[in-house]
Predict the 3D structure of the following.
Amino acid sequence: MSQAKKFWTLRYIIINATYFAVYSGIHAYASVFLLEKGFSNTLIGITLALANILSVVFQPIVAGLIDKQGKLTNRNVSMASTALLLAGSVLLLIIRNGIAVIFIIFALIYMVQMVYQPIITAMYFEYEAAGCHIYYGLARGLGSAGFAVTSVFTGMAIGKFGVSILMILDIIFLSLALVVLFFFRKPSVETTKPAGADVAHNNLFSFIKTYPSFMLFVLGAVCFFFAHNAINDYIIQIITPLGGTEASMGTAVFIAALLELPTMALIDKIMKKVSCKNLLLFAGAAFLVKTLLMLIARNMAVVYISQAMQMFAYAVFIPVSAYFVNQTMARFDQVKGQAYINCSITLGGVFSSLVCGRLLDIKGPDFMLIVSLIVTAAGLVIAFAALKLWREKRQSAVS
């Protein structure tokens, strides 16, 4: 690896690692933090559902503003988002009570972080096009590793120092991210734009008309992440009948997060031999197998094997879908494309939260997993149809 590539990659790794370290604090430990502040389980659910729904609304809007190529660049929005998260974390550290105020602040920073996530990915493609060569897979994989390690460390730190340590850690990571982003300036590159090329499709209906196969694929991805989030959100309810404990849950989450690193680190090399289309279908099939294994599990060993499927499911889907957007979208639509992929993940989580909790109460974890398996299978069929349509469209355009 050249010195220049190491330099750009190192800084992009820090941006990813700090983002997902903070993601651990705000998302993975949301219930722990809010319960300590006096929230009921119902109010926690309302807070997170509202934040997720708002993020689905705002992600395409913010992406559309960035795609206009004005002052709202990927880097500037990333810095503004980080500054907002930093301010919110400071406020949550200072405010000791007041459920209404904490509700508003926490929902806002949760939403901002979700809106910010696809912009980090879009920033990679922007900088790569400007000659700032970065190993995206390695950086994204180390982001997941950062999440895994921080989650384990944070759990131990909360036991020793109390829930306030969450916001203290977030403040440290966000301050580091803000400094790195400030100096993460791409070189000026003169670009020539042919007349009539690269028209931004900021209207949703115009975007769907322009990229029908992509939006159909997004629908399939929503189905994948319905099951993915059902397992993540309710894993303690799934493993308790199998003799699992909170410690077992920590191990299962750690296995899934850590095994994302090798796949993501090697994804650039894998993509040279296997097409985006085939890799995305492979990831969809892996989501299906992961859900099936969790359904048939009768001991923790099978649960751990199911979690290990993360390296073929999520770890393949996330970087390959980012490249899929880059191949599918015109230049002025690529940030929106990344946002819609992220929206599919968020929507899958919203539907999962609304449906699976009720299914658990009525029929138990096995029935919830059966429904999740059916939804994932439907998603695989939809994704196959979408990618077949995309391939046919590309071949007709070439010919």
